[in-house]
Amino acid sequence: MELYHGDIVYSESSEKLNVFEDSWLAVEDGKVEGIYKDVPEKFKNVPVTDHGRGLIIPAFSDLHVHASQYIQRGIGMDLLLNDWLNTYTFPQESHFADPEYAEPIYEAYVDDMIRNGTFHAGIFATIHRDATNILFRKLEEKGLWAYVGKVNMDFQSPSYLCETTEESLRETEIFLEEHSGSGTVKPILTPRFAPTCSRELIWGLGKLGKKYGVGVQTHVVESRWEAGESLRLFPDCVSDSQIYEKAGLLGNGPSIFAHVIFPTEDDIRVMTEYDCVAVHCPEATNNVIAGIMAVKWQQEQGVNIALGSDIGAGVKNGIYRQCAASIKLSKLKEFYEPEQGKTIDITHAFYLATKAGGQVFGKVGAFEPGYVFDALVIDNIEDAGHPMTPAQRLERFCYAGDDRNIIHRYLNGKKI
Amino acid sequence: MELYHGDIVYSESSEKLNVFEDSWLAVEDGKVEGIYKDVPEKFKNVPVTDHGRGLIIPAFSDLHVHASQYIQRGIGMDLLLNDWLNTYTFPQESHFADPEYAEPIYEAYVDDMIRNGTFHAGIFATIHRDATNILFRKLEEKGLWAYVGKVNMDFQSPSYLCETTEESLRETEIFLEEHSGSGTVKPILTPRFAPTCSRELIWGLGKLGKKYGVGVQTHVVESRWEAGESLRLFPDCVSDSQIYEKAGLLGNGPSIFAHVIFPTEDDIRVMTEYDCVAVHCPEATNNVIAGIMAVKWQQEQGVNIALGSDIGAGVKNGIYRQCAASIKLSKLKEFYEPEQGKTIDITHAFYLATKAGGQVFGKVGAFEPGYVFDALVIDNIEDAGHPMTPAQRLERFCYAGDDRNIIHRYLNGKKI
To answer: Could you tell me the CATH superfamily of domain B60-110+119-314+321-348?
Structure first.
């Protein structure tokens, strides 16, 4: 058992931020036992760590990130999605055929996610199983929580980054068998998106999903082009989401849909029926994809929403950055599309970044009793002589902070 | 004379980035003499500084910033402009009546602008002359380039942050007389905006502008509310800009208009006729003001455009951040208002951040012969084993860099 003192802050819901100033958080077997204003008598012999005015917050969850694109962050941002994919992303991802190319990039990515307080992530690797396993093992070694996908692409893909359908399914099945354990890093099916996957592949993945009980992550209605192309290729489906429903890919585990900017009524139906998570990636959306997700409107329809960095369309780790970016984009959404767009506030955004995203992994992302103590200590936010409330410090960190403000990190209850 | 080696990059125009890889920049008496691929014979005895693969770029210009709001950065961002002004900004600015309150804030602001490579700035202080002089002297001591304004407010302002018209004009005239020298820090007239200034005050400032030959900075059509309110108060004017034209405030020095999001045809007429600079503050605009400036469209109309951080509506120093933010907003402008909005690219944005903004101060912001050598050395941008072109490194710095990537700073030809 351990006791941690500081200003403790976490989200109860999208409308409620719980703030315990100058309080004590008790951790037992790596899990939150409770939060106390004063140390209870029963804990008087428990070792204490005093973080002073440090802000103790849950670690962040990044529900959509391409670890393989870490190397290309902040390059080619003048291109729109298709040009960016063909000029930068696809050629770069093809190099992951070589594990020696992959290893240092995945190493740098994992170090950087930890440095920026992302301890739970839904991660796209590439089509290459060997390289994907390197990433998988690195995440396991660090004790992080993740869903990791070997990407599937067998159609309308450049020859240097394309599998046969058989190969794609076979390699995926081997990947699932290699990682059938019960650790905190798990495999997930990862068809890139409908335009680069044949029907046979997607339906084959659906069978694997059922056989192995694993979920799916993919890109859904991320652009008008993608939405239209998916329906052209799957004319028996009335929505992009329905492709995955019909293929049997939903309901076997988490279903993580990245972007979801242009959902139809049927996309909303599928997402609510199968408890999918729609991942809002505000910086990435703004960089290479036109349009803004209607966060509050989708939430009102009953859709689960989380945040993603979407590196390399996003340029940097740190889901706190995406909190600020999501608020900014919601203001523009309301300005331009008032019927669908309502502004979200910092309380809502921080909830998306922590508890909402964490739900995909288990009891992480909040400090209610029984939650895993995955936490960050945030400090050096205030100016000398100008004390700020915990909520103000949280807001400033999300808008103007960086990894230097994360002065301690706890993962599974242990300082790292 | 000095020679600097590195990858030298600067903007020639909004469409042309000049890149001199592995080259030498010669500085004579603090000014750029020329750029050479190899050291010319005549310079063979000149001392050299080798920055290796460091990117040597011009220092940035921030054409709109409230130094007095540095202390409130990243707080209260959930409020829209009017609420934010009345809840946070006006009460906070009122404390600058006390020079002891002002001193450490201005000190911290100036240190932070230097740390982030902003060496030229158009700065709002507050209505308080004594505190404004503290800021003025700090900028002078550091050798920076700035236009500094004692703010004027005598109307529709909270009682704790309001002057009489006589007091406002008298204090302003004393401020101008105190700073009549020819240094790189200069006074500028700073009526906050039309809704907080009486006609008598604005016309009085026009007379001072002509008498002392000083320019003006203010907020122009920054929100629909402000634009409408200005015309309600000045019914003889057909545009917000025309108020300043009629008052005689334009053409006496630089005319710096912040935001300019909702210009009418007459605003464009005034800005082009008087060579005004419209300052695009993308992050700030997104935080507390609805709407997006039509950068490319205004440029096509002949308007000069520069970038601003607009701290505290903006949250952080670093005009490189505003480069990325301006590109992102231009993409949304094009998406939502294709008739006025054309996407700008990194070449355009970097030009706004350096040469375009620098023109207000003199020959700063580029490396053509005769330009002052105000420069930054940018490094630690690349990942090991993955070399990037100079233009790629510049782009990544603007999107994902921070002050840690600025490893050397030269001001007026001297390392600081």
So the answer is: Metal-dependent hydrolases (3.20.20.140)
